[in-house]
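Notes from the pairing session

We agreed to fold both candidates in a single pass and log them together. This is the raw record for the first candidate, unedited. Please don't reformat it; downstream parsing expects exactly this layout.

Candidate A
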Amino acid sequence: MRSSELASLAGITVRALRHYHQIGLLEEPERSSNGYRDYGTHALVTVLRIRRLADLGFSLPQISTMLEGTEPPPAEVFDALDAEFASQIDRLTHQRELLAHLRQYEALPDLPPQIASFHHLLLRSGLTGSAAAVDRDHTLLLMHLMGSQGQGYLTAIYELLSHPHRASAAAAAMTAWADLDDDASREEIMALAEQITELFLPVVAELAAQDAPELPAPPDAWFSQHTTDYLSSGQRAVLDTVRSALEARHDGTSAPPDT
């Protein structure tokens, strides 16, 4: 039989068959007088064995050894493969839990799952979909760059912002922040900066009272690039004003990032 027939019978592609030849799993027959390679039933059995072992999860180097031997592999080989599958099951179970969590709160799938429930409350309190998407992008970037300690701090901020007594104000401020562009007037910038400052003052105080972990200072290089390349000039102006106001009024307390 020719390579295409062998591949079809074995349920693989001709490309996979050639790969088996290249790595030495399957001996390549000589070409006949008509220029085609002719495979026998022994080749089909070998390919079926390769497929069976690969489906079980064995690596190609392991398969190569098994094809040559007549005894089962040592128990350690099975143990290692079983441990790998157990790890994959744990990972997939965790992924399913994350999906269920995001679905429960009708969250954007790429939203950090730590804040999904809080985003849900803010959306119900008036946060627009477009503003939620902008906030997702900012928070995703910050959580990635700030590390686990920063993630905990940001999650605590969202929990406090989404409390019923301030969720509407937080949603309004976040929506106004997302809509602020390069054409924002000085009056708009100062009004929003004051609104966000008044919103965050009690939040920062509550975090301090809870003895929450401090937000690690971002490296100047990436923070400068983030605020220059990603935020509008209006958003940068609000951010600078809010940070200055919070630092002045709390005498050294770390100000929250551009949430």
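Candidate B (folded immediately after A)
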Amino acid sequence: MTDIVHHTLYDGRRIAFRYTHGSGPCLVFLPGYMSDMSGSKASALFAEAELAGRACLLLDYSGCGLSDGEFADGTLSKWRDEVLALVASYVSGPVLLVGSSMGGWLMLLVAEHLKHRLAGLIGIAPAPDFTRWGYTAAQRAALAAGETILEPNPYGPEPTPTHPGFFADAECHLRLERGLDLACPVHLIHGKADADVPWEISLRLKAALGSAEVQVTLVEDGDHRLSRDSDIAALKAIVAGFYG
């Protein structure tokens, strides 16, 4: 099942995904905001899993990539439930969650529902609670008033939108202040030259996690994407560490 296929949810939504069977914990990759499973990190980890004979699941959230829906309708709650539906349908045994940027926030929400199945968490420039620390007071007020805000997009010609529905839902999923009751091993990797998510967020996440096994790797010259060959090699090494 390494080709892209679709899973149909109860309401008819079709979620695009790729899955390869294998041994050990199944690696489930959660992309960032407005990203999909075709990204370099997801693709590299899927290819590595195939070579090593490990199980791996990639997916596109609704409104992203090859999945049904409009991005404007996307929320953390909706995307969390899509991930959980695919895990329930296709994955047996332990799960290793890997979340990139916003996917690092979503990873925490998914993990809270998979506690008994978690082999570990890997956060790549994780961005939990970014609706709190990532926007100005004026932007937050506009979103709370039902407005969509647009910001410059460093990765493409179109501005990056944040929709009020996403914002309202995200306000229900703040985790850095309340703490997290997760006891599995966690490894966070963050570039100190990240212009989008301050590397200190990974340190705040470490403090919020209930696990005694949290490791943070800071890449001195790493940017937000951490997609250079050296970054991906470091990521593969971190993943391999969860398989012994």
